């Protein structure tokens, strides 16, 4: 290391100023830096600078007066703007506002380790590499409309005030790894022609990347966003990586286009994550732990794997034409993020389960979508396209119908969808709770007609049947029949049509009501058995009173009950002679017995068939 008094405290690679505690580069004459040189020495250096266009102020403490003199001495282009051939400001300290408006840096521009005590404005053109590694900006830093024709390095730089790169153009590699942005940061309408690296960057203020275009790869791995992050209408044409990212406030990726491959996650979002109108051109893997995720009108033409935790998810009007899966994961792939999640999840008191809760699929194309380990208790399916192709895989849970004695609980006896719960709750049924709906998604969906709800159950049932899940399909069949029984048939335009429709509606409801009472639509074995037992007991009394000419011996009610039980199975007793009433009762038992037993067996088969 070359010697000045600061040599031991701040190692540098140049001869330093002889002024005490100054590490500014020494001029060729006088032994001091430009800041401490005499008037004549400074004048000679400024003259040389004007002739060569080479600025070398490494380590120099720069005041406003000195900066004005330097920028006034450099050459000018045809537009009378500063034209700098070589610029070296390594570890310089700008004790004033640093203004480089309109300047063109033809050669490498080095600001490595520089400190900007005042505002810095670099609305300039950097035709060669620009280095701001480990630079410190104490106040605002403006790079609006700046043009970086070659590589730009901001590694480990610290922006203590606001940083603005609006409409900046980075034609070479843009390096922002481990940069700390303590104020608000803006890259709106910026263009990154080559790779953009924000690995391990820390955004402590607002981060705005709206309308930014990333032509090359974009790397945000292990970045931290402590305030809101806004990527609205950004475009990622190359590979994009957002793995191990932490979002401590809301994040908006609305209308973002991802044209290249994407590694989105593991990502921890403390609040809501908005992916509305996002388009993913390539197969995508998204792993997120968040409080809420809005993914409305998103498009996944090549498929997606959504691996989620905790989140309340809205997928309205999204498109899943290719094989896709939404699954709840037990733990994030990143151990570091998983540990942070455990600490912040304690504040999410409104959730009782770590599995994601799907709130709505209204208007979505779910032809390729599968659900696994997802809570569908409050999910709205109305308007979803290809609902019969929705794959409901393992550990998918719905709400359950309340018993006659209690409110909605996991211990219910059949699965119900949110649309039926909303309809029943709207009829002032105290036993039914309204399904949950996100407050920010106003208005709440309208209550559907039972006929429409029956159609939803029918589509979901087909999806269950296609994967040979007969027990799961049975609950949806029951719900479909319940809604059909409750539905009002459409009335015709003429009096005759209205009368016929109303009459047929009453007949159909009567048939369905009887079917429900007798066997629970062929799904409740206990009802059929109870009816069979009741009919057998009642007709045994009739047999005992008026049914026998020669009764079975001994002549008691119990032998009459035994005879009635045998009659349900069409078993006869030649020693018994029946009256006309007895023959009628026997015929009734021979008809109802096999029917009710058949319904009971059908219900049992529906529950155990695979």
Task: Looking at this protein, list some descriptive labels.
10 helices, 22% strand, 49 strands, rod-shaped, 610 residues, single chain, 34-stranded parallel sheet, disordered N terminus, alpha/beta, 11-stranded mixed sheet
Write up this protein.
With 610 residues, the protein is an alpha/beta fold. The protein is 27% helix and 22% strand. It contains 10 helices and 49 strands. The strands form 4 sheets. It has a 34-stranded parallel beta sheet that branches. Strands 3-4-8-12-16-20-24-28-32-36-38 form an 11-stranded mixed beta sheet. β3 (75-76) and β4 (82-84) form a beta hairpin. α6 (470-486) crosses α7 (495-519), α8 packs across α9 (557-568) and α9 crosses α10 (580-608).
Write the layout of secondary structure elements.
Layout: H1 39-52, E1 54-56, E2 61-62, H2 64-73, E3 75-76, E4 82-84, E5 86-88, E6 93-94, E7 98-99, E8 104-105, E9 109-110, E10 115-116, E11 120-121, E12 125-126, E13 130-131, E14 136-137, E15 141-142, E16 147-148, E17 152-153, E18 158-159, E19 163-164, E20 169-170, E21 174-175, E22 180-181, E23 185-186, E24 191-192, E25 196-197, E26 202-203, E27 207-208, E28 213-214, E29 218-219, E30 224-225, E31 229-230, E32 235-236, E33 240-241, E34 245-247, E35 251-252, E36 257-258, E37 262-274, E38 279-280, E39 284-294, E40 304-309, E41 312-314, E42 324-328, H3 335-344, E43 357-360, E44 369-372, E45 391-392, E46 399-400, E47 415-416, H4 418-426, H5 450-466, H6 470-486, H7 495-519, H8 525-547, E48 548-550, H9 557-568, E49 577-578, H10 580-608
Parallel strand pairs: 1-5, 2-6, 4-8, 5-9, 6-10, 7-11, 8-12, 9-13, 10-14, 11-15, 12-16, 13-17, 14-18, 15-19, 16-20, 17-21, 18-22, 19-23, 20-24, 21-25, 22-26, 23-27, 24-28, 25-29, 26-30, 27-31, 28-32, 29-33, 30-34, 31-35, 32-36, 33-37, 34-37, 35-37, 36-38, 37-39, 39-40, 39-41, 40-42, 41-43, ...
Antiparallel strand pairs: 3-4, 46-47, 48-49
């Amino acid at each position: 290391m070359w010697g000045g008094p600061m040599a031991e405290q701040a190692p540098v690679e140049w001869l330093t100023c002889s002024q005490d505690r100054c590490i500014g580069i020494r001029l060729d004459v006088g032994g001091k830096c430009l800041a401490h040189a005499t008037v004549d020495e400074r004048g000679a250096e400024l003259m040389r600078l004007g002739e060569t266009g080479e600025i070398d102020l490494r380590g120099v403490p720069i005041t406003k007066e000195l900066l004005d003199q330097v920028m006034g001495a450099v050459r000018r282009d045809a537009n009378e703007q500063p034209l700098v051939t070589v610029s070296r400001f390594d570890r310089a300290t700008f004790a004033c506002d640093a203004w480089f408006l309109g300047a063109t840096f033809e050669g490498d521009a080095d600001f490595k380790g520089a400190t900007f005590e005042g505002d810095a404005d670099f609305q300039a053109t950097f035709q060669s590499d620009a280095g701001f590694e480990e630079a410190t900006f104490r106040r605002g830093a403006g790079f609006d409309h700046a043009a970086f024709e070659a590589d730009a390095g901001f590694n480990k730089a610290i922006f203590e005030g606001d940083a603005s790169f609006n409409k900046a153009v980075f034609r070479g590699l843009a390096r922002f790894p481990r940069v700390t942005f303590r104020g608000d940061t803006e890259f709106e309408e910026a263009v990154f022609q080559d790779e953009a690296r924000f690995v391990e960057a820390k955004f402590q203020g607002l981060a705005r990347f709206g309308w930014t275009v990333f032509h090359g790869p974009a790397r945000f791995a292990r970045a931290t966003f402590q305030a809101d992050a806004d990527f609205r209408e950004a475009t990622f044409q190359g590979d994009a990586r957002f793995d191990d990212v932490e979002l401590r406030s809301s994040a908006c990726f609305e209308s973002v286009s991802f044209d290249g491959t994407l590694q989105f996650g593991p990502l921890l979002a403390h609040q809501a994550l908005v992916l509305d109108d996002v388009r993913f051109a390539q197969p995508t893997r998204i792993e997120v732990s968040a409080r809420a995720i809005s993914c409305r009108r998103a498009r996944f033409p090549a498929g997606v794997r959504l691996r989620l935790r905790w989140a309340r998810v809205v997928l309205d009007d999204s498109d899943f034409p290719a094989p896709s899966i939404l699954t709840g994961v037990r733990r994030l792939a990143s151990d570091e993020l998983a540990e942070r999640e455990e600490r912040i999840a304690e504040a999410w008191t409104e959730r009782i389960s770590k599995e994601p809760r799907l709130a709505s699929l209204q208007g979505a194309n779910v032809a390729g979508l599968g659900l696994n380990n997802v809570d569908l208790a409050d999910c709205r399916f109305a308007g979803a396209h290809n609902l019969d192709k929705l794959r409901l895989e393992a550990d998918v849970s719905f709400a359950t119908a309340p018993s006659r004695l209690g409110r909605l609980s996991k211990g219910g006896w059949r699965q119900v969808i949110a649309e039926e719960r909303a309809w029943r709750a709207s009829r002032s049924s105290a036993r039914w709770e309204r399904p949950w709906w996100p407050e920010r998604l106003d208005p709440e969906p309208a209550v559907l007609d039972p006929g429409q709800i029956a159609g939803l159950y029918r589509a979901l049932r087909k999806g269950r049947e296609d994967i040979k899940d007969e027990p799961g399909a049975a609950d949806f069949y029951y719900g479909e029949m319940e809604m059909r029984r409750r539905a009002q048939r459409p009335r015709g335009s003429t009096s005759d049509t209205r009368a016929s429709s109303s009459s047929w509606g009453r007949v159909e409801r009567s048939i369905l009501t009887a079917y429900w009472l007798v066997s629970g639509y062929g799904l409740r074995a206990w009802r059929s058995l109870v009816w069979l037992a009741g009919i057998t007991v009642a007709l045994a009394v009739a047999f005992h009173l008026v049914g026998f000419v020669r009764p079975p011996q001994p002549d008691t009610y119990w032998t009459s009950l035994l005879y009635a039980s045998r009659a349900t199975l069409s078993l006869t007793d030649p020693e018994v002679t029946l009256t006309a009433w007895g023959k009628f009762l026997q015929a009734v038992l021979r008809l109802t017995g096999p029917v009710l037993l058949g319904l009971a067996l059908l219900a049992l088969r529906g529950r155990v068939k695979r």
